[in-house]
Amino acid sequence: MNAAPQFNKLALIGFGLIGGSIARAARAQGLVGRIVTSARSEKTRARVKELGIVDDVVETNAEAVREADLVILCIPVGACGPVSQEIAADLKTGAIISDVGSVKGAVVKDMAPHLPKGVHFVPAHPVAGTENSGPDSGFAELFINRWCILTPPEGTDAAAVERLRAFWAAIGAKVETMTPDHHDLVLAITSHLPHLIAYTIVGTADELAQVTSSEVMKFSAGGFRDFTRIAASDPTMWRDVFLNNKEAVLEMLGTFNEDLAKLTRAIRRGDGEALFEHFARTRAIRRGIVEIGQDSAAADFGRPHQQLGKKPR
Ligand code: NAP
Q: Which helix (H) or strand (E) holds 160?
């Protein structure tokens, strides 16, 4: 672990999978003096109190951010603009304000105009998650060996960027910096499109109702079972991702549809050579991913618990 940066008060707006994991990890690493959180519903606030991970749970977002030197919005992408407006007047001068949204261009556009001069806006996206949500779903190891992408606007104070980088590194993440537009393009193909495909295929299978009820799950050793897990991801979060990364997703979807049409044609024409070539190319890509250490060659069911995100509490 890197040398721990110190923040006197961390304010987490929203306490679901990501907010809850940050709280648990920051606590476990001793990175913050106090953690204060707010969440939208009374039910979540009551549960966060019961969990006893944070020092204080407050009713309003504005109250949570007062005197905080690090504020992280852990809420759906579409809520970041309105919440920034709500907390702007209560942000401490010199505070770092960040988020964890899966889309960056829209979040920057929505948040930046509300933020007062004198605070440091350093947007972030931890590329780590599960299909679970809510205050009980987080765990301290979620970010270990996962990427966290920072997208600071031009001219952001370098010391503030470095402090946030060190914070994410201290809770286990590998940190990279890029522009919001580049982030959105990369994530459109690596995360957003795969989710869209999972949502589609599970919906398609469900339309074959007589099959779904029995045979689909029975025979879904790997492929379809994994799709159902991904398609169980939070509907609010993913609605906001597609509404806010429209251009990049549509661009990738256009290319994807062209490639799918090529494979469709190869199947229709019985063009085994084209199919073989395509599958051989994708197999080489997968092997390359394993070689550079981005994934393990072991099947999911053979992996140690930590990689699978075993919950400590
Ligand atoms: P989550 O488990 O559903 O938690 C969301 C939290 O936000 C809850 O505490 C919720 O409060 C609060 N919230 C929702 N709408 C709000 C609003 N309008 N104003 C204030 N608070 C609101 O979601 P999550 O998975 O942690 O995702 C949070 C963010 O992380 C999203 O922007 C997502 O794009 C990003 N992200 C998610 C993943 C992933 O795999 N899940 C990975 C990386 C980044 P209530 O409980 O009271 O409704």
A: helix 158-170
Q: Assign 149 to helix, strand or coil.
A: strand
Q: List strand residue ranges (DSSP E) for the chain, in order.
A: 7-13, 32-38, 56-58, 70-73, 96-99, 120-121, 124-127, 147-150, 174-177
Q: Indicate whether 8 pLDDT > 70.
A: yes
Q: What radius of gyration, in Å, describes the C-alpha atoms of the chain?
A: 21
pLDDT tops 60 at residue 308 = no
- CB distance 18 to ligand 1 below 6 Å: yes
**Distances 159 to 5, 111, 120, 152, 180 between C-alpha atoms, Å:** 12, 21, 10, 12, 20
CA 144 to centroid of ligand 1, rounded, Å: 20
For position 310, what pLDDT does the model report?
38
**pTM summary value:** 0.90
Ligand 1: which of 75, 111, 190, 234 to mutate, most ligand atoms within 8 Å of CB? 75
Are the C-beta atoms of 164 and 124 separated by less than 8 Å?
yes
